[in-house]
Amino acid sequence: MYSKVLSLRFPRKIVNEPVVVNLVKKFDLTFNILKATIYPRKEGLMVLELRGHTKNYQRGVRYLKEMGVKVESIGQDIKRNDARCIQCGACTAVCPTGALYIKRPEMEVIFDSEKCSACELCVPTCFSHAMEVKFDRMLAG
Amino acid sequence: MAARKGTKSIEVINRRIRQGKVVVVTADEMTEIVRAKGPARAAREVDVVTTGTFAPMCSSGAFINFGHTKPAIKAARVWLNRVPAYAGVAAVDIYIGAAEPAEDDPLNRVHPGQFKYGGGHVIQDLVAGKRVTLEATAYGTDCYPNREMRKKVTLDELPYAMLMNPRNGYQNYNCAVNLSKKTAYTYMGVLKPEAGNANYSTSGQLSPLLNDPYYRTMGLGTPIFLGGGRGRIIGPGTQHNPRVKRHKKGTPLAPAGTLMVMGDLKQMDPRWLVGVSILGYGCSLAVGLGIPIPILDEEMAAFTGISDEEIFTQVIDYGNDYPKGQAKSLGRVSYAELNSGTIRFQGREVPTVPLSSRVRAREICEILKEWIQKGEFLLDEPVEPLPSA
To answer: B222 partner at 20 to 30 Å CA-CA among A1, A75, B89, B210?
Structure first.
């Protein structure tokens, strides 16, 4: 079993097409949608966790790319600006996936982008504005 | 040497600093030393213990004199990057408070407000060498006819800038939970409903006032690490309250003593003065504060040997009780428990969230230790102690 959180950017020409359902029908994958938005210029953004056998996962991702969906690992969307981070830990109150956590006993605040679901709750919660969303790239899809 | 056996004076310690013979350890290291060797031996071996804390500290700000203009102005209202400063001091003297939001900030009109820029950010920008827009309006007088001015200034160009924080370094602070049914956006961070998390904001065994619980070595004049530079304690801070219940080792079980501190802003560092935005609450400034504690005798060694297991605080409900002004302790937890990641509260495990940076507090202890070891930082006897009862 393989699972990964991906961000999918749908260009406007396929935003009305059934795409995600085919991941189930054609490739025997399961998914959990964490976020879905359509932007004013009709591009779509979806964050989902895709789960299945490695081979099926790879085929599924290839299918998405052939359909014109831009597939990216979610870690690329939320970044921590380490120069701004003051290592307090306030963000860990709201992070639902444990991507932001405290390493003990050092009490160091770690950001594991692999676990990040891009919910963005940390962005306004962070005292020092260290958590950054790459909006431009999201709209570029 | 005039000192009695088993005691050391500040004078003796300063001589050892100048001679490069001083033994300085951090509060973390002192905890281990006292645990292993006992306070009597620790007092003989160690001269100074460095303490530190780095967290948002409201009740911070800076006095600024921006210099006389041509024509001259008696500024009545002043803004720095659109953040209002208090101008009722003198013609071109102002005080910029860390908690002041920008003039056009939407505040909590859409709750929870984000408070992206405020007085704390202005202070950080100045210290970082950025240009800040200064605007002033005035009613005009015979000696100061100018009604309006606007200019860009940098910290270097300001004739005077003094960080002056009326209340920093709280000796212990509450552990905050929210027992209401909706998320609370507080100065203690985001608190999820029904005790979803427990937030706390003290550097525990590294915290300055928890290492000198009865303020034996601190008071007016004590030299400190402040915002990456040097500063001094200038008295008890606002809300300083030594009369709270204490543990048998002396540490208070609730918020107690506080410090008023000051230091020249021009020698500070933006790494240690960070403007912060607290969701739904407001703006503030994270302040790096470090205080050296002279190990005058066995008692001071025992005090500075305190560990997180022996420091306790109270759990307060910020969902219902605190906003009503009826805060009451719902339980007692140690900093060792808080640092473990969960506390046991009302029969269940509640995840804990630190708001005060241990990593950066440790760094302050190390920097201060280095300054003292290099002979660059001397101690001083307080001119007037902090009120201890």
So the answer is: B89
Give the pLDDT band of residue B4 (cuts 50, 70, 90).
low
Phi, psi of B277 (to 5 degrees): -120, 125
pLDDT of residue B71: 96
The CATH number of the domain holding residue A123 is 3.30.70.20
Q: Are residues A102 and A66 in the same domain?
A: no
Please tell me the predicted confidence (pLDDT) of residue A76: 63
Q: Spell out the residues 6+ positions from residue B21 whose beta carbon is closer than 8 angstroms to its own.
A: none
- Is the ipTM higher than 0.85? The answer is yes
- Give this prediction's pTM: 0.89
At CB < 8 Å, which residues of chain A contact B? 86-90, 92-94, 102, 104-109, 124-125, 127-129
Number of structural domains chain B divides into: 1
Q: Give the residue carrying structure tokens 């994270």.
A: B286
CB contact under 8 A, A89 and B116: no
Q: For B350-361, what is the mean pLDDT?
A: 98
The dihedral region occupied by A79, where left means phi > 0, alpha psi between -120 and 50, and beta the remainder, is: beta
pLDDT higher than threshold 50 for residue A136? no
| CB B220 within 8 Å of CB B239 | no
Q: Give residues 294 to 353 of B whose Cβ lies within 8 Å of A.
A: 339-341, 351, 353
DSSP string covering B3-68, please? SPTT---HHHHHHHHHTT---EEEHHHHHHHHHHHHHHHHHHH-SEEEEEEEEE-SS-EEEEE---
Q: What is the mean pLDDT of residues A111-134?
A: 92
Catalytic residue status for B143: yes
In a domain, B89, yes or no: yes
Question: Scanning every residue of chain A, which has its alpha carbon at the shortest distance from the alpha carbon of B356?
Answer: A88
Q: Is the pLDDT of residue B320 over 60?
A: yes
- Contact list in B for residue A104 (CB cut-off 8 A) is 339-341
CA distance B81 to B152: 9
Could you give the angle at the alpha carbon of A44 between the alpha carbons of A39 and A49, nearest 5°? Answer: 130
Domain span holding position A32 = 2-75
Q: Supply the mean pLDDT for chain B.
A: 97
* One domain for residues A12 and A71: yes
- Residues in chain B with CB shorter than 8 Å from the CB of A86 are 54, 274, 276, 286, 357, 360
**Do residues B47 and B70 make contact, with C-beta atoms less than 8 angstroms apart?**
no
The count of domains in chain A is 2
Q: Do A93 and A46 fall within a single domain?
A: no
Report, as an integer, the average pLDDT of A58-77: 88
Q: B17-74 pLDDT, tens per residue?
A: 999 999 999 999 999 999 999 999 999 999 999 999 999 999 999 999 999 999 999 9
Q: CA B155 to CA A15: how far, in whole Å?
A: 52
In one-letter notation, the amino acid at residue B196 is G
